From TrEMBL:
GO biological process: alanyl-tRNA aminoacylation
UniProt xrefs under InterPro entries: aa-tRNA-synth_II/BPL/LPL, Ala-tRNA-lgiase_IIc, Ala-tRNA-ligase_IIc_anticod-bd, Ala-tRNA-synth_IIc_core, Ala-tRNA-synth_IIc_N, Ala-tRNA_ligase, Ala_tRNA_ligase_euk/bac, DHHA1_dom
Domain notes: Consists of three domains; the N-terminal catalytic domain, the editing domain and the C-terminal C-Ala domain. The editing domain removes incorrectly charged amino acids, while the C-Ala domain, along with tRNA(Ala), serves as a bridge to cooperatively bring together the editing and aminoacylation centers thus stimulating deacylation of misacylated tRNAs.
Catalytic activity annotation: tRNA(Ala) + L-alanine + ATP = L-alanyl-tRNA(Ala) + AMP + diphosphate
Protein name: Alanine--tRNA ligase
Length: 875
């Protein structure tokens, strides 16, 4: 059975049992800060499991895209480990329970209409105290007792060991189903049925309290089950992954064989490029933070595997079409992002290839040292590999393990913590949304109806007040410096979402209370009015008059509608790969991130801006319609990759050229934008560009400011008309260039005089001169001139120069070619010296540079550098 067929059969089976088929959640879950990526099928149903909010259905089935990196070292080594994988699941929220879950699992696995597995090849485990599950398997399914194993809480409870070790919260026993292959190999766990029936409170005994409603959460790995059905020894041999392994082999120039020496690295390449492609498709690009860090790690690990197999140029981007081919049936949108994903991956590959050889060379020195008995990669060494050579710590660990070495992770982490700048404080909602107050409001039936599409004013009732991360019944003025949040049952205020900023304004209780709203945020179906109580008293149940700033909202509407015009224009002139990757819509200001492989040309920027303003002049009608996703697709609505849409979506149409799904506030026709000016275009991440533009009043103000500035510059440069400025600037540039030439002659003469003095005072070791000096009144750029002059005039000379500018130290080491041949290295010198001034650096044997932040230690640094030279020269 093919993998795609298995996926559909599973979903069809549970639909036949009354389960609602739900689409996979996105890989980066929205509104869930507890995980970086979606790790399991149950994550999108957290509220249903917890009984929060309205229950639209009581049983569901999904095939969920998942990504886990906790055991990344096992990928390609074991038969079944992946980073990206798909999890088949069926769920019950107070509906069916153990009996149905067990019977349906057995029916799906063994009935010839479905999978038709041989029953004798299946065995199960249950929690040691779960007599109910044991009885269903034995007495109702008819499984012999010898094929039902009772296991402890570490094996058959979710979360593992939770009865004795916690955490507190919902939990329950589970039953796992195993398949025993006819070849006699190791049995394979293919399905886990979790019976969520307890709330764990405190320590044993008697700490498992029955839940009011029992739930079911099951998971069956798609790739693992496909491997069983296809009779292959590993997930990587199934119909969707074997071709990807072979494509990886072709890309690096070796033949893929499962048992071959190159099998493991090629499987890792196949796994990682699949995971990266799926992530980049959803807008996650390589970076040094959060999800982007994981994508960068996977890319660099895969590239390193290919590099060590002899492929020393970019190749991973060429595997993206193979990934899309394997995954396009369940995820057809992948085809649309193929080009953009390949461009992003190639750019990251090229960057890493530029530094990988140097990093491997440095690591090899560590390995050579270990052959003398030291098997530890020090924290300092790992830190330098990380910060100077781009080796993520997980890569260093993996490479160390290949040589039987370990990394001092504690020391590395301390150094990294010192190196990182402390991040700024989060917003009000960042701290509150992970807490319990909002869930408590939802449990009492609280939701917020949004009135703001039609008006900026309205009335509502207070259904919750959050102060100091806790619910309170009332609030008295003054409410203090820390902002608080007021939740209403109805509001015209737009809560920040979809890139559109939240509204500001006021909440009033007659004339007695005034609440100043400085921001509005949304969490699910609740809107939080964040601000300060300026007057009177506010309490839950109060009727309030809510007034959002109409002028500010108008500017936001202009910018938001212009964002859709910009998206249309970019795709028209740059092609379909120019896909939205993020946006920020503010008062007459928009910021738009989009996928594109390189900077836009000035001509392209002009074309895009002209197109936007042509559509504004057209005054095309803007209309909205709430419909289902399928209808929106039929209308050609633009759906952003990585965005999770509800069953009912809001479709925004502009003229006959733009159709997008959007929950933001818009104009009634494009002409109301007035004017749009592109202010800047720049790169912000791998394969991602950013445009900043102004609309309406702000665009007009910008034009006037630019004109006034040109007039002022023209007056300062004594030019009659601004149009003559370019000619005048060219003239001044020519004069400046001549002045620099004249200055350079004087500088060279000064350097020559100084160099002769330095050489006459130099220490001589082994027939070579050592010049280690701090220079005064010299800028950083002039250091190279001094170093070159010293090597030119000094014969055999080793140089270390230091200078302080704006409180920072610059070190430059230089060695003449004859000394390099004798093993004297500028890089060794500058590296030891830099440590003493709190910095680091490196370079070639003949020339190396470093920086530091402690000028007080320059003398010590120069002495250390001289010692390195002295030792290398035999002194």
């Amino acid at each position: 059975m093919k993998t795609d067929e298995l996926r559909e059969k599973y979903l069809d089976f549970f639909v036949s049992k009354g389960c609602i088929r739900r689409p996979s959640d996105v890989l980066v879950p929205h509104g869930d800060k507890s995980v970086l990526f979606t790790p399991a099928g149950m994550n999108q149903f957290k509220n249903q499991f917890l009984g929060i909010g309205p229950l639209e259905f009581t049983k569901a089935t999904t095939c969920q895209k998942c990504l886990r990196t906790g055991d990344i070292g096992n990928v390609g080594v074991t038969a079944y480990h992946h980073t990206f994988f798909e999890m088949l699941g069926n769920f019950s929220f107070g509906d069916y329970f153990k009996r149905e879950a067990i019977h349906w699992a057995w029916e799906f696995l063994t009935d010839k209409k479905w999978l038709g597995m041989v029953p004798e090849r299946l065995s199960v485990t249950v929690y040691l105290d779960d007599d109910e599950a044991f009885g269903i398997w034995e007495k109702e399914i008819g499984l012999p007792a010898k094929r039902i194993q009772r296991c402890d809480e570490g094996e058959n409870f979710w979360p593992a060991n939770s009865p004795s070790q916690g955490p507190d919260g919902v939990c329950g026993p589970c039953s796992e189903i195993y398949y025993h292959p006819p070849t006699g190999g190791k049995e394979v766990e293919i399905w886990n049925l979790v019976f969520t029936q307890f709330n764990r409170v405190g320590s044993p005994p008697n700490n498992l309290q029955p839940l009011p409603k029992n739930n079911i959460d099951t998971g069956m790995g798609l790739e693992r089950c496909a491997a069983v059905l296809q009779g292959v020894e590993s997930n990587f041999e199934i119909d969707t992954l074997r071709p990807l392994c072979e494509a990886a082999g072709n890309a690096v120039g070796v033949k893929y064989q499962f048992q071959g020496d190159q099998g493991r690295p090629l499987r890792r390449i196949a796994d990682h490029i699949r995971a990266v492609t799926m992530c980049v498709h959803e807008g996650v690009v390589p970076s040094n933070e959060k999800q982007g860090y994981i994508v960068r790690l996977l890319l660099r690990r895969a590239l390193l595997e290919g590099y060590l197999l002899g492929k020393q140029d970019a190749f991973l981007y060429g595997l993206v079409p193979a990934v899309v081919e394997a995954m396009k049936r369940p995820y057809p949108d992948l085809v649309q992002s193929l080009g953009a994903a390949a461009d992003t991956i190639k750019e990251e590959e090229q960057q890493f290839l530029g530094i990988i050889e140097r990093g491997l060379s440095r690591f090899q020195k560590i390995v050579d040292r270990s052959k003398k008995g030291d098997s530890l990669v020090t924290g300092e060494e790992a830190f330098e590999l990380h910060t100077q050579e781009g080796f993520l710590i997980e890569m260093t660990e993996a490479m160390a393990a290949r040589h039987g070495m370990q990394v001092d992770l504690d020391k590395f982490q301390k150094l990294l913590d010192q190196h990182r700048e402390t991040s700024g404080r989060g917003s009000f909602s960042d701290s509150v949304m992970a807490e319990g107050p909002l869930d408590a409001i939802r449990k009492t039936g609280g939701t917020t109806e949004f009135l703001g599409y039609d008006s900026t004013t309205g009335s509502g009732k207070v259904i919750g007040i959050i102060s100091n991360k806790a619910l309170t019944d009332s609030l008295a003025s003054p409410s203090g410096e820390a902002p608080v949040a007021v939740v209403l049952d109805r509001t015209p205020f737009y809560g920040e979402t979809g890139g559109q900023v939240g509204d500001v304004g006021t909440l009033k209780v007659g004339t007695s209370a005034l609440f100043d709203v400085i921001d509005t945020q949304r969490d699910g179906d609740l809107v939080l009015h964040v601000g300060h109580l300026k007057q009177g008293k506010l309490k839950v149940g109060d009727a309030v008059q809510a007034d959002a700033s109409a002028a500010r909202r108008a500017g936001i509407r202009r910018a938001h509608s212009a964002t859709h015009l910009l998206h249309f224009a970019l795709r028209k002139f740059l092609g379909p790969n120019a896909q939205q990757r993020g946006s920020l819509v503010d008062n007459d200001t928009l910021r738009f991130d989009f996928s594109h492989k390189g900077p836009m040309t000035p001509e392209e920027i002009t074309q895009v801006e002209d197109e936007i303003n042509a559509r504004i002049a057209e005054g095309a009608a803007v209309s909205t319609q709430v419909t289902d996703q399928e209808t929106a697709r039929q209308h050609g609505a633009m759906m952003l990759f990585g965005e999770k849409y509800p069953d009912k979506v809001r479709m925004v149409t502009m003229g006959d050229f733009s159709v997008e799904l959007c929950g933001g506030t818009h104009l009634s026709n494009t002409g109301q934008v007035g004017l749009c000016r592109i202010i800047s275009e720049e790169g912000v991440a791998k394969g991602v560009r950013r445009i900043v533009a102004y609309t309406g009043h702000k665009a007009l103000d910008h034009v006037r400011e630019t004109e006034n500035l040109l007039k002022q510059v023209a007056i300062a440069l004594k030019v009659p008309q601004p149009k003559e400025l370019p000619k005048r600037v060219e003239q001044l540039q020519a004069e400046l260039a001549q002045a620099k030439k004249d200055l350079s002659k004087f500088a060279q003469a000064a350097v020559a005089d100084s160099v002769l003095g330095y050489l006459s005072e130099a220490e001589v070791v082994g027939g070579a001169k050592i010049v280690c000096r701090k220079l005064e009144g010299v800028d950083r750029d002039s250091l190279r001139m001094y170093a070159d002059a010293l090597r030119q005039e000094g014969g055999s000379v080793a140089v270390l120069l230091a200078v302080v500018n704006e409180g920072k130290v610059t070190l430059l080491a230089a060695v003449t070619p004859d000394l390099v041949k004798k093993g004297v290295k500028a890089g060794d010198c500058v590296r030891d010296a830099a440590k003493l001034v709190g910095g680091g650096g490196g370079g070639r044997p003949d020339l190396a540079e470093a920086g530091g932040k402690d000028p007080s230690q320059i003398d010590a640094a120069l002495a250390a550098g001289a010692a390195v030279y002295r030792k290398a020269l035999g002194g």
